[in-house]
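Pipeline run #58 for the internal structure catalog. This entry was flagged by the ingest filter as a single-chain record with no existing model, so it goes straight to prediction. Upstream metadata was stripped on purpose; only the residue string is passed forward. Reviewer on rotation: M.T. Logging verbosity set to normal.
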Amino acid sequence: MAKNKMKKFPGNALVPLACTFALIAAALFLTILSSSALPRGRMMMQDDSYYSARLLLSGLNIALCAYLLFVYVRDYLELRSSFTIGLIGFLFAFLLYGLSSFPLLHSYLGYPMQGMGGLGAFALVPMLFSTVALLIFLKISLE
């Protein structure tokens, strides 16, 4: 049997952690930059009973993406695999989704905190599916 000859990353986890924070900062910058193109007109305010659930799920998506980005940046620094770069790109796109759907970021950028134009539960369902997908991805990544 051939021994697994992976190069171990020299040093501690500071470099992957710094790279992960840089990716998160870039995603936040791109989210804020892209939102500046959207009109800030007044939306019809509606009672949004799903606000707390959207806040929780989008926050969980951001946290899962940040952790998985750290895992795969660390792996890339050890393996130098192009497949790992693809996973980092995939997770970066998921992070952009999580940030752009985070209700507190909407209010920070000057958009109303409540009301999704009458979408109700349909504003929550995509976040639920993406959270499930990220949890499956996390389980597979930790094996």
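catalog note: Confidence is low (pLDDT under 50) at residues 1-7.
catalog note: The chain has one domain: 16-26+47-141.
status: ready for reviewer M.T.
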